[in-house]
Write a structure and sequence with these properties.
alpha/beta, Rossmann fold, globular
């Protein structure tokens, strides 16, 4: 049995859905390492009676903390029940979290159906080597400012 590191996140209007889903899947989730944004993590820990590593609340930087863990290779799967009908004050953070999950090729579930597919997959418990994208060309690209303020940077002398 492979132990996965699963991040769990839910917007306020989707917390009940995530908690119900997690409770239904409690035994499976207990076999893995769980982390979550602050409020969601606290609720999950209480309902599931299993440890959950908690980051800040999403709007206070929790989404970004999870994104950093994904970029560092410390998270294998993201379960993120987000609310498509309710604008979030931290929407840029939400988009950044989803983007970084795609950049680093980790599975992402955004609702109960996709979460069910992920946790019921044989790959959830078997050895699986995730293909990491090769960003060598991107990292070695040469960029030069061609216009705008960056192209006009000139040392100044104050007197």
């Amino acid at each position: 049995m492979e132990k996965r590191r699963i991040a769990l996140v839910a917007h306020d209007n989707k917390k009940r859905d995530l908690l119900e889903w997690a409770k239904f899947n409690r035994d499976l989730l207990a076999e893995h390492e769980l982390c979550a944004t602050g409020t969601t993590g606290q609720l999950l820990e209480e309902i599931l009676d299993i440890p959950v590593s908690k980051f800040q609340s999403g709007p206070l930087g929790g989404d970004q903390q999870i994104g950093a863990k994904i970029a560092e290779g410390d998270i294998d799967c993201l379960i993120f029940f987000w609310d498509p009908l309710e604008p979030q004050p931290h929407d840029p953070d939400v988009r950044a979290l989803l983007r970084i999950a795609v950049v680093w090729n980790i599975p992402v579930a955004c609702n109960r159906a996709s979460a069910d597919y992920i946790v019921s997959s044989p790959l959830m418990s078997e050895a699986y080597e995730r293909t990491l994208p090769d960003y060598t060309d991107y990292l070695q690209r040469v960029t030069e400012p061609t216009a705008g303020p960056a192209a006009q940077l000139v040392p100044t002398v104050s007197g």
